[in-house]
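@channel sequence for tomorrow's demo:
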Amino acid sequence: MDMKLSGFCSLFFIATSGVMLFSSASVNYSHTMILSTETANQGDSMTASCTIKSDSKVSIMVIWQKKTISEKKPVEIATNVFINADFRATNRYSGENVDNSTNTTSNVMFSLKITDLRSEDSGWFACKPVVSSFQSEEPKDFKLFTVLVPIQKIWWTSFNEEIPLPDGHTETIREGDNHTFGCHVNGSFPNAKVQVLLGDQDVTHLFEVNSDLKKSHGPKGLHPLYYRTDAISQSNIIGYHNMTKSLRCIAKLPDSDLSAETTINVNMTEYSPTFLCKDKMRAKLHETYFKLTCKVYANPSLKSVRFHWVSDNSNSTLDAGEKNNDLTTEMSTGDVKDEVVMVLTISRVTQQHFDREYIFDAQNDVKRVKHIIHLEQDKSVPITLSGGSLSLSLKKSLLLLLLYSVVCNLP
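structure tokens (generated this afternoon):
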């Protein structure tokens, strides 16, 4: 196309747009852009309006521009009501204008409407005014618009990340196995926030969460977008205390009610001994038959139970049912499945029993586990040392009474 023909085409386009060219000096003008909404659901509509005003009678045009997350360089959508080819091909973009100009001023409102919204319509929108002899400025006030696309799929994996676990699935594991769990969320826009619950406890911090923006094929400014998010557990999060609880993964789009979730149950068939007892216990000096008690849970059953303590720089060990001076040990079956009760009884607590470490030792086919109890002295209410059938304090009272009686009966 030669220069003459090109110039003619440009003039023809402007004439058919209802715009006149002026070669006058720069004129003052202002423009305002408004989005009908900042977020909308997939399938809804959105309208952007741009009002351009000038105190002078000038020609006015507008160029609609858009930037996307994947493409930071602006793409032109339309000029005035004329939609560019790629956007026109969607049959979802349209434009119109309303001219409120007078004989001496210019005032035109341009509108860009998008119907049947999809993820590719998300981005930063702006209108670029063109006045007089193509006097224009690059837009600085791009406004973000987001189309909310529901989560397409959410699923759990365990061990083998290629095999999705159906909702409600029960996963059987053994303690010590590398049972990595993963929650996967696919197809949402924008990025969904993932939360993981073990029973009612939030354990999201035990998962490493990574998100990737995926871009499908399409023309510039119209690439379908979606996110893939993976939350992978970084430690063996299942133990005896939570082995009957469910793992629940919840994904939610920000600032919306769009969410999805999936749940699996975890059944631990074998686990190492787990102690349910205190780390510190308090006893009174001279207290009799004081018991240090621990409940132990194990599957398979315990095959070895021992009690250890250190005294006078020597280690002492007793099996269940044995006795050593003032210490007696015993083991009994608990009230619930896999429960065993270990008891170390001190017949009379003396000063030597304090500040010791009493070690409860239990072993099954999975692992050997020890639990340490520190015994401290409780000085709140001292116990009176008794001897024979009379306490020491009572003996002192009787002795004083006898002395008084003897003195008072002296001649």
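heads up for whoever presents: The helical segments are 3-16, 85-88, 392-408.
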